[in-house]
Design goal:
The protein has 265 residues and is α/β, with parallel strands linked by helices. The chain has 10 helices and 9 strands. Strand 8, helix 8 and strand 9 form a beta-alpha-beta unit. The longest helix is centred in the C-terminal third of the chain and has 15 residues. The chain is globular and about 45 Å long. The model has no long low-confidence stretch (mean pLDDT 96).
């Protein structure tokens, strides 16, 4: 899902089990404001042809984003927007290509900090949630070339109660039909690499965390904890949105992203 015009270039990165489709309301709004927008599917997500059991690593999962950033023009500076687990892919792309990223935006996302393991904040989040958080979600084991790997499919009751509870019934129905198997990649070696996220690359890029105050999936306290872990990170707020702010409050999110792009782009 891509388009072009003069202006900034936004690259939108979805969260676990989702795909580019979840940005369908936001994309035309950003384009109408005169910007180029790329909403992409990470590997084995959305309309991407691979199966999750064929994705060997978190880097391979993030490959569509890494390739998109690598292929951007030399004078083109990007606004990367990561939602939920997509924040980790944005962090990886920012580390690899810091000169191409004008600003990295974390929309109620997992945001790591420079100098620590990529998976540190994700592990903290998973460690703080209650055992019954995932409700009717299905946990599965994938037979991969690297051995058995844990995966999940987000259940309709979870989607209705904690992700799309302020979104329309149509958005919830769409999400329920388009969910795919997802992985958190907590066992991936790249998640444990303490040297991966450097101050000179990832740490040098401007970062903005968009706090979704009413998020039932990731608490405001947890979101602000990640902001505090990364000194210099700016915070914006959206009120009245659920975890899927691009569905429940697309206009408000668009306004925030345009403000960020105008300041840092």
């Amino acid at each position: 899902m891509e388009g072009s015009s003069s202006g900034k270039h936004f690259i939108l990165v979805h969260g676990i089990c989702h795909g580019a489709w979840c940005w369908y309301k936001l994309v035309p709004m950003l384009r109408a404001a005169g910007h180029r927008v790329t909403a992409l599917d990470l590997a084995a997500s959305g309309a991407h042809p691979a199966r999750m059991d064929e994705v060997s690593s978190f880097e391979d999962y993030s490959r569509p984003l890494l390739d998109a950033v690598a292929g951007a023009g030399e004078v083109e500076r990007l606004v990367l927007v990561g939602h939920s687990l997509g924040g980790l892919s944005v962090a990886l792309a920012t580390e690899r290509f810091p000169r191409k990223v004008a600003v990295a935006v974390f929309l109620t996302a997992v945001m790591p900090c420079a100098g620590t393991r990529l998976g540190f904040t994700l592990e903290e989040i998973l460690g703080r949630i209650k055992p019954d958080f995932f409700m009717d979600s299905k946990r599965v084991v994938l037979n991969t070339d690297q051995g058995p790997r844990a995966a999940v499919v987000l259940g309709p009751e979870l989607l209705a109660a904690k992700l799309y509870e302020r979104s329309s019934a149509k958005d919830l129905a769409l999400a329920t039909m388009l969910m795919r198997v997802g992985r958190q990649f907590v066992d991936d070696p790249i998640m444990q690499d303490k040297t991966l996220l450097t101050e000179v690359n990832y740490g040098s890029v401007k970062k903005v965390f968009v706090v979704v105050k009413a998020d039932a999936c990731m608490s405001e306290e947890m979101q602000r904890w990640m902001v505090d872990l990364s000194p210099g990170t700016k915070a914006e707020e959206i009120a009245g949105a659920d975890h899927m702010a691009m569905c429940s409050r697309p206009k408000e999110l668009c306004d925030v992203l345009l403000r960020i792009a105008n300041k840092y782009g």
